[in-house]
Structure to design on (760 residues):
């Protein structure tokens, strides 16, 4: 079953972080999402073992936890890159050429949207709107926002985050 | 010694334009001159004029500078702050007249606005409760706590305030339902899950004036008899979350929140829940499910949340902007509030102006203003002198309105009649280079992606509509596609479980209503006149404009461009992969689409 779900697993697994998150939240009502958020903050993604542990401690079926974890866009079941590039594909960015930005990034990083580079330096994602429409097209790298993008600007920006471009 | 106050806009827009770096530069330049203590440097909320960011305003004289960069700060201090000589080049320049002005109220973008809800945004430091109190903050709460609960509800009803989140349900009625439902425990929930692409007013209010939202929620809690509230805010808005947290802590310290509020025996606490990224959670029952820790899927209504909401308790759920209106109504009175707006839509509405418009940003205007005034007077018209084609209002649930409707006064009812909806108030302006079929496809991609999958019409229907639109934009459309889309759209509208599915067909229906010829052109003639749909256009070089600079030949990844130096080039359309690289590179606009 583990294989069928294609969850990334680590062996041996360090349960320390998930257990301390659970200790903090387990008596709170409706804490599933804050728990998953906190666990993801710890590991950088939601490891399969951590989800199992959450289900066990909260005494709910694994399917419930898995269901929530796969429902929301914020949660990731695979490890992600050191730098997360999120390209906005909101309406304002769309009409100002957001799709071209994504294409160019895919070309630079040799990645599909949702993918992570082999060296785990970058993950490329798209996001529906980051609310900085005034500066469209926009992308975020980690917590930095870059606005008024053009395809020419991208390589330079990415380079600052450690991507070597020829 | 007179202290001067320098306000930096620290909304997300200006921060991404580099406002914090400019602020740091100003502070260090002030320190270098040993005059740091004479100036108060404040990070405020959003001024709204994101296009011109970073922005700063110097008080008391109210001088407005825009596009301020770190290297400008030394000059600003030496010329302006110390010697009173205005730095002309940093003033706002009117794109039409070319005139510069230091008074931002004279700028078209601000002059026509009526900033009631946003009156504190960009004026106060949102992380300092004393500044909020200094602008009549929490006075409405003090007044409300002396009123009868029913009197508060009546006041809100009389004001005519309607929900600012989209559907426009009368807020007072919602409060009354929740008030009248018996129950020992009731909840107030603030919907700050602003997921509409192209809308950021809730974010700006939370970032710029978080106490106004809290005050509205506390008043609502008192009026309906709730002792606990939740703010459900997108995790993608870290700054808003941070400022809300600070505001809650400060309000508790000042006794406006917590137990025995202002000695009246009324208890109210507010929790923050961070959403995890699902558009459907803007729907109220889905939002409640998500607070409860479940998948954010909607459930059938009735029962409405006012009867059975969070954990089965009566729950009053309003949007950020709605709550931010409440202190105003209680403080200034329902009559004063209702004096602004149209007969059935009272007060103001904040719109997010984006797309191919000169002045992008946030604008608060009285209900009933025409689209033309908003787009051309406030928004400064269309970029690069292009032709206005349509405005998309209301996000993925809304519709596209054509130029013929520019003089439509905007309120809830007029928009619904025109086939759009108020939604959260995103206005995305489109010019002649936007393909309406592609736009409908774009929105459907979004709603299809965000469909939670619970009900069949939305889950399957949006997929089928998207397939048809993809076919059409790829040039494989069939003549039966238009009637099929219409039929599907109408049945999805009628039979979906929640607002997401019920409104998902709006972008298709409204573009079919006003831009049917574009669909027909794609299907029957295999043409996309906007030049967007890749399969339907070919790239050519205008021999008159081409200077033979060879810039395009160097960027073409497939070597489709040939021609000698200083001679007009040609594109071999058999080889061309239509990547558009040549068009972007060309400085002479010689690459054209046919």
């Amino acid at each position: 079953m583990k294989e069928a779900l294609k969850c990334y697993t680590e062996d041996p697994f360090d349960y320390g972080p998930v257990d301390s998150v659970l200790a903090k939240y387990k008596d709170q009502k409706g804490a599933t999402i804050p728990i998953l958020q906190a666990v993801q903050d710890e590991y950088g993604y939601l490891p399969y073992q951590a989800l199992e542990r959450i289900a066990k401690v909260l005494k709910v079926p694994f399917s419930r936890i898995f269901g929530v974890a796969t429902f929301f866009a914020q949660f990731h079941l695979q490890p992600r890159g050191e730098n997360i590039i999120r390209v906005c594909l909101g309406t304002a960015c769309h009409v100002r050429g957001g799709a071209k930005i994504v294409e160019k990034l895919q070309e630079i990083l040799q990645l599909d949207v949702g993918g992570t580079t082999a060296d785990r330096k970058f993950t490329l994602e798209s996001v529906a709107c980051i609310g900085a429409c005034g500066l469209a097209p926009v992308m975020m790298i980690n917590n930095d926002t870059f606005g008024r993008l053009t395809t020419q600007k991208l390589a330079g920006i990415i380079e600052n985050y450690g991507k070597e471009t020829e | 010694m007179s202290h001067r106050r320098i306000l930096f806009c620290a909304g997300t827009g200006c921060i991404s334009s580099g406002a914090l770096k400019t602020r740091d530069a100003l502070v260090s330049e002030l320190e270098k001159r040993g005059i740091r203590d004479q100036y108060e440097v404040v990070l405020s909320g959003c001024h709204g004029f994101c296009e011109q960011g970073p922005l700063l305003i110097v008080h008391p004289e109210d001088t407005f500078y825009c596009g301020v960069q770190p290297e400008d700060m030394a000059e600003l201090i030496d010329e302006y702050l110390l010697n009173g000589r205005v730095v002309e080049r940093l003033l706002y320049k009117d794109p039409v007249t070319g005139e510069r002005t230091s008074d931002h109220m004279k700028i078209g973008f601000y002059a026509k606005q009526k900033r009631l809800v946003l009156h504190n945004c960009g004026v106060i430091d949102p992380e300092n409760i004393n500044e909020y109190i200094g602008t009549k903050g929490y006075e409405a709460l003090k007044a409300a706590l002396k009123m009868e609960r029913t009197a508060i509800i009546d006041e809100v009803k009389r004001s005519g305030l309607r929900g600012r989140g989209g559907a426009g349900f009368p807020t007072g009625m919602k409060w009354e339902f929740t008030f009248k439902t018996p129950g020992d425990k009731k909840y107030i929930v603030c919907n700050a899950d602003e997921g509409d692409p192209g809308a950021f007013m809730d974010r700006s209010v939370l970032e710029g004036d978080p106490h106004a939202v809290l005050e509205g929620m506390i008043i609502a809690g008192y009026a309906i008899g709730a002792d606990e509230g939740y703010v459900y805010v997108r995790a993608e808005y870290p700054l808003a979350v941070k400022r809300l947290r600070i505001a809650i802590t400060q309000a508790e310290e000042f006794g406006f929140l917590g137990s025995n509020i202002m000695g009246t025996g009324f208890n109210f606490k507010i929790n923050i829940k961070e959403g995890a990224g699902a558009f459907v959670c803007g729907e109220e029952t889905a939002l409640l499910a998500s607070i409860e820790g479940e998948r954010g899927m909607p459930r059938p209504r009735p029962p409405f949340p006012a009867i059975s909401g969070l954990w089965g308790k009566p729950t009053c759920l309003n949007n950020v902007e709605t709550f931010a209106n409440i202190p105003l109504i209680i403080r200034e009175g329902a009559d004063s509030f209702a004096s602004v707006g149209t007969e059935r839509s009272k007060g103001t509405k904040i719109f997010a102006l984006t797309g191919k418009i000169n002045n992008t940003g946030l604008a608060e205007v009285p209900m009933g203003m025409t689209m033309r005034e908003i787009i051309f007077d406030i928004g400064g018209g269309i970029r690069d002198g292009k032709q206005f084609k349509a405005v998309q209002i209301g996000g993925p649930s809304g519709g596209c309105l054509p130029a013929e409707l520019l003089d439509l006064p905007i309120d809830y009812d007029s928009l619904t009649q025109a086939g759009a909806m108020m939604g959260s108030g995103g206005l995305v302006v489109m010019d002649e280079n936007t393909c309406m079929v592609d736009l409908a496809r774009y929105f459907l991609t979004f709603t299809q992606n965000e469909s939670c999958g619970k009900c069949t019409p939305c889950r399957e229907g949006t997929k089928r509509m998207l397939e048809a639109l993809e076919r059409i934009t790829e040039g494989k459309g069939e003549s039966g596609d238009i009637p099929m889309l219409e039929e599907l759209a109408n049945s999805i509208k009628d039979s979906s479980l929640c607002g997401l599915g019920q409104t998902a067909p709006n972008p298709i229906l409204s573009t079919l209503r006003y831009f049917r010829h574009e669909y027909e052109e794609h299907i029957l003639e295999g043409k996309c006149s906007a030049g967007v749909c890749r399969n339907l256009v070919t790239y050519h070089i205008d021999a008159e404009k081409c200077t033979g600079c060879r810039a395009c030949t160097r960027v073409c990844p497939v070597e489709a461009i040939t021609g000698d130096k200083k001679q007009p080039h040609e594109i071999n359309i058999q080889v061309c992969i239509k990547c558009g690289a040549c068009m972007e590179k060309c400085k002479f606009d010689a690459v054209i689409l046919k």
Observations:
- Chain B has five domains: 4-106, 129-338, 348-431, 436-525, 538-593.
